[in-house]
Amino acid sequence: MSEGLFFPVIETERLTLRPLATDDSESLLDIFSSPEVMKYWNTAPWSDIQDALDFIDVSNASMLREESLVLGIYLKSTRDLVGKCMLFSYDKESKRAEVGFGLGQRYWGKGYIHEAGVALIQYGFNALGLRRIEAEIDPDNHASAKALEKLGFTLEGLLRQRWEVNGVVSDSALYGRLVSDQSSNSLA
């Protein structure tokens, strides 16, 4: 596996964030084949192992090109993969990226998104030199909105009729966070 800014291993109290490997494919499929996990995504639930393998390949290729940072979220206690976190749509010149998270349903409500989010955001601001991190979510996804606000993001606007998935048209809520925001250096 490559090394450098786009292939970090980030440790938190309970988690390890690191690039995905081929042997993570079954765990990824288990997580992202769930209709509940994928409810607010702009793609359908994954249907077979090839979806997971393709995601890993595309993610690692994008990281090699320094276009995104896609990390698995692993429990330190068991080494189990419980989700993924990513900085994508990376624009080096504008010093911005978009953040995204996906977590297995049985791990919801345990603070893992907040813990991984704090580490990923700090990495984006400190190591990648980002000035701005954005998130785009379905306005009906109240859990993600709450998680983003807890991570110091501000609701900046609504993009009307932004997505259509399986014939369902939905809006997007746009959240943003700047390195200069007061909470940037005080996340806990």
Automatic annotation (TrEMBL):
Keywords: Transferase. Transmembrane segments: none annotated. The keyword Oxidoreductase does not apply. GO terms for molecular function: protein-N-terminal-alanine acetyltransferase activity. The keyword Nucleus does not apply. InterPro entries: Acyl_CoA_acyltransferase, GNAT_dom, N-acetyltransferase. It comes from the Bacteria. It comes from Halomonas campaniensis. Residues 15-175 form the N-acetyltransferase domain. This is GNAT family N-acetyltransferase. PROSITE patterns: GNAT. It holds the Pfam family Acetyltransf_3. Signal peptide: none annotated. GO terms for cellular component: cytoplasm.
